[in-house]
């Protein structure tokens, strides 16, 4: 029976590329090995000042990584370096742990050296254990065969030097700037200085949470703000120190001090494990509702995957996720109490993210809803503040609101005149949150949507006699606008201020219409869906708008006195009343409506000029 044959050299390179799809990861892996080697030596020499060197040589196309760590002897090389998946670091760390000796190593899989074969045509390792007279050179071309030569002690100081001979198409890694960027990305917080061609360190070594000033709250915030500003080139509006006892985690988050529309405003974490970066720009660790925060977390309890580009979703991971969510909520609530102007600014710039997540994730919403600001005709107020200013009627406090943001002009004017307080719930998610808040307090709060409500508190009904006197005007208004392809249902009410001639209640229809218009602009995958959406849009157009004329306004009163208000002579005046209400409500003015308004206005101006000249 024939047997399958294996190309070991091809297998090694395939495994390396599969595990490490990003070619620069070999720098991280070799720096990690150097770090672990130094940590193991410091178990016996605690005063040792560890140091890592990276040296570039363009002439030989080599990239060298040197450390003054514990080094290897022949047995280590044969048992660990030459066996894929056998880790000397992990074995020694476990041996020390069995003797209750703690050592802060990172490696555990014994495959880190493989990563270099993504970019290397061969690897040379020079190594010597301290206090020995024998050094060793190990050479491998990515196959099952390797060379192992004994060298005199003078050939290699205690520690290890890994020489990566780059493939012809990988010489980009001889660029010192690229090396610096990669070191900062993956190994910025390694506790030993990393020097490039003798200069450095090129890593920060310590972050603010590694410094002694971390325990002082004011110093912690100052240093963390400076650190995050430099790392992300984005000024923080709010910094959130991360200092969790269980699982142990350190780091810092920030909310950017800039306007970031939409929900994808952040929510990303540079995830470190034992000072080594595991995953940049991770979007999974933080809870779903966190779309406005980014930063750094270092949690030794996390378990990396074999490729060290992600972590296992184990108990520690989920505990950390929950703890970080609680930390961010607590920071937001603290800011709302401690620095309200800054909290309002944060809510304004990140409105969609914060209120969107409060609407979609009830736990987050329950924690922050009473602190979130809402626009009113008396400034921004929280819902408890709003209700505190409202009087109780029939055992409940009214919560007036309108759902089309542009309606602020007319409804704020109405409410100011009547001494009422109304919320502009036209921004995304506001209405959802208002309705949730009111439903949770149904016994004490009553919702009153102004754009759908013929409320006697705002619009006084006319008595029977007066109503009959305005009936002709109502019919004339409806007919005049129908000729302009505008469907309205005109009613006369008396409301304040008297200077407001007409009010248009169209929030629900206009909002639905706008949403349908946006939907029609998107490509649909299902046949017939665009036709269906167009039909719905046409049906919305058929729904009449509610137009209230103000019986307290002098122009409306004079129109009532006309014997035939529907006469063609007055048609321009009637349509102008509608257009005035439309503009005051700031509703979406379609091109067709704008053309009609422009034509009517020109005609009115022409008639007025003729009268002036006569």
Please outline what is shown here.
With 614 residues, the protein is of the alpha+beta class. Helix content is 40%, strand content 19%.
Task: Write down the Rg.
Answer: 36 Å
Give me the secondary-structure category: alpha+beta
Beta-strand portion reads: 15-25%
Q: Total number of helical segments?
A: 19
Model description:
With 614 residues, the protein is an alpha+beta fold. The chain folds into four domains: 8-196, Heat Shock Protein 90; 217-336, Ribosomal Protein S5, domain 2, CATH 3.30.230.80; 373-452, Rossmann fold (3-Layer(aba) Sandwich), CATH 3.40.50; 464-613, Four Helix Bundle (Hemerythrin (Met), subunit A), CATH 1.20.120.790. Helices cover 40% and strands 19% of the residues. A hairpin with a 5-residue loop joins strand 3 and strand 4. Helix 14 packs across helix 18 and helix 18 packs across helix 19.
What's the SSE blueprint?
Blueprint: H1 8-19, H2 25-42, E1 52-57, E2 62-67, H3 74-81, H4 88-98, E3 120-128, E4 134-140, E5 146-152, E6 159-166, H5 176-187, E7 194-196, H6 217-232, E8 236-245, E9 248-256, E10 268-273, E11 276-282, E12 294-298, H7 315-338, H8 340-349, H9 351-360, H10 362-368, E13 374-376, E14 379-381, H11 383-388, E15 397-402, H12 408-418, E16 422-424, H13 430-439, E17 445-449, H14 464-482, E18 488-493, E19 502-505, H15 507-520, H16 529-542, E20 545-550, H17 554-560, H18 571-585, H19 591-613
Parallel strand pairs: 1-7, 10-12, 15-16, 15-17, 18-20
Antiparallel strand pairs: 1-2, 2-6, 3-4, 3-6, 4-5, 8-9, 9-12, 10-11, 13-14, 13-16, 19-20
Helix pairs in contact: 2-5, 7-8, 8-9, 9-10, 14-18, 15-16, 18-19
């Amino acid at each position: 029976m024939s047997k399958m044959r294996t190309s070991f050299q091809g297998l090694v390179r395939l495994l390396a590329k599969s595990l490490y799809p990003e070619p620069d990861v070999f720098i991280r892996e070799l720096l990690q090995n150097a770090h672990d080697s130094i940590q193991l030596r410091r178990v016996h020499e605690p005063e040792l000042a560890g140091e890592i060197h990276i040296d570039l040589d363009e002439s030989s196309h080599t990239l060298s990584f040197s450390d003054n760590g514990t080094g290897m002897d022949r047995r280590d090389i044969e048992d660990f370096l030459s066996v894929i998946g056998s880790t000397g670091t992990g074995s020694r760390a476990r041996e020390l742990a069995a003797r209750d000796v703690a050592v802060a190593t990172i490696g555990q899989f014994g495959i880190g050296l493989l990563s270099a074969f993504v970019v290397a045509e061969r690897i040379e390792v020079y190594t010597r254990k301290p206090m020995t007279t024998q050094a060793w050179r190990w050479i491998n071309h990515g196959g099952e065969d390797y060379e192992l030569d004994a060298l005199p002690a003078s050939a290699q100081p205690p520690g290890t030097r890994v020489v990566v001979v780059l493939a012809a198409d990988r010489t980009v890694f001889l660029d010192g700037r690229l090396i610096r960027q990669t070191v900062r990305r993956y190994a910025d917080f390694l506790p030993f200085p990393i020097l490039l061609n003798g200069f450095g360190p090129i890593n920060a070594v310590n972050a603010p949470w590694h410094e002694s000033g971390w325990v002082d709250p004011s110093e912690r915030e100052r240093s963390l703000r400076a650190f995050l500003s430099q790392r992300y080139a984005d000024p923080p509006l709010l910094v959130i120190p991360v200092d969790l006892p269980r699982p142990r985690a350190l780091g810092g988050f920030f909310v950017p001090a800039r306007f970031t529309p939409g929900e994808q405003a952040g929510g990303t974490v540079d995830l470190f494990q034992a000072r080594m970066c595991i995953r940049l720009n991770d979007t999974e660790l933080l809870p779903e509702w966190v779309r406005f925060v980014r930063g750094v977390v270092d949690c030794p309890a996390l378990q990396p995957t074999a490729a060290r580009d992600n972590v296992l979703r184990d108990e520690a991971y989920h505990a950390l996720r929950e703890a970080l969510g609680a930390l961010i909520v607590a920071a937001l609530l603290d800011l709302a109490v401690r620095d309200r102007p800054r909290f309002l600014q944060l809510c304004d710039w990140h409105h969609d993210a914060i209120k969107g997540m409060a609407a979609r994730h009830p736990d987050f919403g329950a924690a922050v809803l009473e602190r979130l600001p809402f626009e009113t005709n008396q400034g921004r107020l929280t819902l408890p503040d709003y209700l505190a200013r409202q009087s109780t009627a029939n055992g409940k406090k009214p919560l007036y609101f309108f759902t089309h943001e542009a309606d602020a002009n007319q409804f704020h004017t109405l409410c100011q005149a009547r001494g009422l307080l109304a919320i502009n719930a036209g921004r995304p998610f506001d209405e959802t949150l208002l309705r949730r808040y009111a439903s949770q307090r149904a016994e004490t709060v009553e919702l009153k949507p102004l754009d759908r409500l013929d409320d006697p508190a705002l619009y006084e009904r006319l008595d029977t006699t007066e109503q009959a006197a305005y009936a002709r005007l109502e019919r004339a208004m409806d007919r005049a606008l129908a000729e302009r392809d505008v469907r309205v249902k005109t009613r006369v009410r008396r409301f304040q201020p008297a200077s407001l001639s007409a009010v248009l209640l169209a929030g629900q229809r206009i909002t639905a219409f706008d949403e349908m218009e946006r939907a029609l602009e998107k490509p649909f995958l299902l046949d017939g869906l665009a036709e269906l959406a167009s039909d719905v849009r046409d049906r919305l157009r058929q729904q009449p708008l509610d137009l209230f004329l103000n019986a307290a306004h002098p122009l409306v009163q004079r129109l009532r006195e006309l014997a035939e208000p529907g006469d063609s002579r007055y048609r321009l005046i009637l349509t102008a009343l509608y257009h005035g209400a439309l503009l005051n409500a700031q509703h979406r003015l379609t091109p067709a409506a704008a053309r009609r308004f422009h034509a009517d206005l020109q005609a009115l101006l022409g008639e007025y000029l003729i009268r002036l000249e006569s």
